[in-house]
Amino acid sequence: MSIPLESAPRAGDSLMLNGRPVYFLAPLPVMSLPDDPLLPPELVLQHDEVILDLGQGKADRDLAFQTRFVIFILYLFGAIFIAAGMQEGELDSLALMLTLALLSIVMLAALMGFGWQVIRRRRRPTIRFNRQRRELCYRDAVSGVPRFVPWESVVAYVHGGTALGATAIGRPIKMEDHSLRLAEYQAHDGSLHNFYQGEGYMVVNFSLENWEAIRRFMEEPKENWLRIDPLPDSQGFRRRRRDLWQRFKDNPNKRWLHINLRDYSESWLTMGAYYLFHLLSWWQLPYSVSAWYLRLAVVRPWPDVVAEWSQPLPQSQWAQPSEQYLEARAAFLKTQQAA
After folding, report:
1. Phi, psi (deg, nearest 5) at residue 76
2. Which residues, in sequence order, are CB contacts of 159 under 8 Å at separation 6+?
3. Do 195 and 213 form a contact (C-beta atoms < 8 A)?
4. What gap in Å lies between CA 79 and CA 16, rounded to an integer?
5. Radius of gyration for the chain, computed over Cα atoms and rounded to the nearest angstrom
6. Tens-place pLDDT, residues 214-227
7. Rounded to the nearest 10 degrees, how much is the dihedral formed by the CA atoms of 9, 226, 329, 197?
8. pLDDT tens-place string over residues 295-318
9. Are 136 and 155 in contact (CB under 8 A)?
C-alpha cells in the first residue's frame, strides 16, 4: 500500500494520514524510550547474535491456547450429550452417534480454522533484521522476491486507528488501536510504501516498546537488549517442564498446599495441578500444533540469498553507523538529558 506525502518523513514528526494520527519513529532511528518496557515485546519472534525476526504479535503465539480451548470444548460437548443421552444408567445408541457426530464436526471446524489461519498468516510478511549488515529484509507481497532495505532509511511509525470491541453485555464499542508499521519512502513520487503492519494495541506504549526492542537489537550491545519470550513449541514445553521438575526436586522446603502461580515448584499442590492440567489438555499436543503453525506460516524457510545474507560476518566487515545518524543520535540524547 502506497500513501502520498507532502514531504519526506522525519523521526519525531506527527501528521494525519487518511484522517488518522501518525507518529514517525524513523528514518534515522535515534529515538528511544527513557525506561525499560514492562512486558516482553510480542511482535519479536526470535533473535540471535545476528538476526531478529519480526512477526504479527499474539496471532503468532496463541495457537497452543486455542488448541487447549478446542480440547475443553470437546470435553464440554461430550459431557453434555452423554449426560443427556443416559437412559437408566446406560448410554442410548442414538445419543452416542449424535455425540460422535458433534465431536467430529467440532474437530473438522478446528482443522478448517487452522488451515484458514495458516493461509491468512502466509499473506502477511515476517521481517528479518540483520544487525551486522544494518539492513532488514522482507518478501515483496506481489512477487515474493526478497527486498533489502538499509536500516537507517526504514520509515517506522505508529498509526492510530480504531478497532471494534464489545462490552460485558455484548454491546459493540469502538476502541483505540495503535499499530507499529514499517515502510519505504519513495523519493521519486513522494509516497510511502508500507510493507509491514503489526498487531494493534489499545495502549500506544506497547507499540513503542516493540520498536524499542528492535532499535536496541540493531544499535546497542547485547546487555541492553530486551528479554524476548520463547516461541510456544514442543521443544520449549519439554525444556520448561524439565526445568520445573528439577527445581521441584531440588527444593528442600516444598510445601503441601502453598499456592504460587509464578513458580509451581514450591508446593505439591501446584505441581500436581500443573501436571493434571497438561494431561487433560493432551500433554504437548497444543505445543506441537503451535510448532506446525509456526513452521507452515510464520518462520518459513527463506530463499538461499537471504540465508546467506543472515550468516555472521567477521567483525571487521560489520556495517557502521553513518555520520548523519551519529550526529542525530547525539542531539537526541542531549535533548533527552536536558528534559
Report:
1. -65, -50
2. 17, 20, 21, 22, 178, 179, 181, 197
3. no
4. 54
5. 25
6. 999 998 888 888 88
7. -10
8. 888 888 888 999 999 999 999 999
9. no
Residue whose grid cell is 509516497: 191
Q: At which residue does the C-alpha cell 543520535 appear?
A: 329
Per-residue cell: 24: 514517525
- Quote the cell numbers at residue 19: 484522517
Q: pLDDT confidence of 108, banded at 50, 70, 90?
A: confident
